Amino acid sequence: MNKLYFIDKKRREKGALFFLKVKLYKFYEEEKIPQCGEVAAKIIEDIEEIFIGKLELIKGDMSGFFQQISSFVFKQLSPQGESYQTISLKIEKDFQNIELWLTLIQQLKTLSKKVRLYIGELRKLIERIRGLSYKLPNHLLSLSAVVEKIESLFDSLEYILLSSNEQGIVRWIEIASKKRIVRLKASPLDVSAQIRENIFCRFLTVILTSATLAVDNQFTYLKKRTGLDQMQGFQVAEKIIPSGFDFQKQVFLAIPLDISEPGEKDYYSKAFSGILEVLKATHGRAFVLFTSFHALNQAYAYLQKPLLELGISLFKQGESGNHYLLKKFKSNKDSVLLGTNSFWEGVDVAGESLQCVILARLPFYVPTDPLVEERVNFIKMKGGNPFMEYVVPQAVIRFKQGFGRLIRNKTDKGTVVVFDKRVKSRHYGKIFLNSLPKCTVSQGNSAELLREIRDFLL
């Protein structure tokens, strides 16, 4: 709603209504036809006294509504303390028996009605201005786009909260960070039919390309998820194209085996100790990637003092924006960045600033995540093996993305260290390793691996 109108911290007016008002003032001052000037003055008055006033009331109602949603989630889950980063609550049918939920639904219906009436008034305002002059089309387009976006937002809110009985759709509420940012989400459990019908069956040729499409050098998972395995009578060609990088010479993959497995009592203490030794050997210049903010914050507390004593700067995701963090990391060669989620993919740091990527553990999704939980149940109902058909392939793709942070050009060279010996001790571990490009691999005692890492980076 702020895209319509708001006042920033410096008490400056912003938003589509404000910019339209400024343009109308200018039109009013320059217009030579008195009647048109009078119409413009009346519209300016309506914007200031009616539209902005009503908008502020609606924004207050929206704020109260989302605060109530946040309270409902916390009453259902009761997270301990303030250490959480994101909590999620799946929307269940039996919420209809909870009085607070019914109150929320009624609040949404009332709010939605107010907003849609307001949208109708905004559209009438747009028509009034459109009939006034041909000189204002760009500002009208901007206002119209914001109106469409708000209408789409409320369509989505109603779909998520009022259509909870639709089969094959999982809906959930997510509360992100201590600021209690509320997100309402919905996703189909199986997207294969939609992709098949709306993409593959509509075009003569479709090309799918990415560095992470294959799992264990096969496209089985991709074809099943996208419906390609059901394309009877169509020709499906597959090809894995070798990378232009010489990973055998550019990457040293180290797998310490003298640490505990994740879940065991002393895993974190041994893993953090091992991570510190690697960072000493590389003198920073590293990403350390985690699968949770809880582990990331524990590592930060453990590493901060010893790295500072070595002159190595330590940054962590969450202390500032990702773009600013990367800028600081790139400008300080002897530094370490701790990241999770978004830092596993789409982050590009070429050159000497990044010579080491540490994967703290295999990136399996949290099993209690509403979408993961429901997709696992969906595969079980169909008689499949959700762990091997969904959980492992998803983790392998994320694992490949994390590995891919290291080598961004042909002159890069560095080490990837995996502090999760399940890649060797569990039957599914070979799928992770087989999915990586062929590179120099070593496993075993941490002290010996540190020596090999130093030698490789010379």
- What is the CA–CA distance across the termini? 55 Å
Number of helices: 15
Gyration radius (Cα, Å) is 27 Å
Strand order of the largest sheet: 8-9-7-10-11-6-12
What are the segments in which pLDDT stays under 50 over at least 5 consecutive residues?
Answer: none
The share of residues in helices is 40-55%
Mean pLDDT: 90
CATH topology of the largest domain: Rossmann fold
Number of strands: 12
State the name of the first-level CATH class of the largest domain.
Alpha Beta
CATH level-4 homologous superfamily of the largest domain: P-loop containing nucleotide triphosphate hydrolases
Class by SSE composition: alpha/beta
CATH architecture of the largest domain: 3-Layer(aba) Sandwich
The largest sheet, given as strand count, sense and whether it forms a barrel, is: 7 strands, parallel
Quick one: overall form? globular
Number of spatially distinct domains: 3
Tell me the fraction of residues in β-strands, as a range: 5-15%
Topology order in helix (H) and strand (E) letters: EEHHEHHEEHHHEHEHEHEEHHEHHEH
Structure description:
This protein has 458 residues and is α/β, with parallel strands linked by helices. It has 3 domains: 6-186, no CATH class; 192-230, no CATH class; 247-457, P-loop containing nucleotide triphosphate hydrolases (Rossmann fold), CATH 3.40.50. It is 51% helix and 13% strand. The protein is built from 15 helices and 12 strands. The protein has helices at 16-30, 34-77, 99-130, 137-162, 192-200, 220-226, 247-250, 267-282, 293-309, 322-331, 370-381, 386-403, 422-425, 429-434, 446-457, and strands at residues 6-7, 13-14, 86-90, 169-176, 181-188, 251-256, 286-290, 313-316, 335-340, 356-359, 414-418, 440-444. Strands 8-9-7-10-11-6-12 form a 7-stranded parallel β-sheet, with helices on both faces. The protein has a 3-stranded antiparallel β-sheet with strand order 3-4-5. α3 (99-130) runs antiparallel to α4. The longest helix has 44 residues, at 34-77. It is globular and about 85 Å long. The protein starts with 5 loop residues before the first strand and ends with a helix. 26% of the residues are buried. The mean pLDDT is 90.
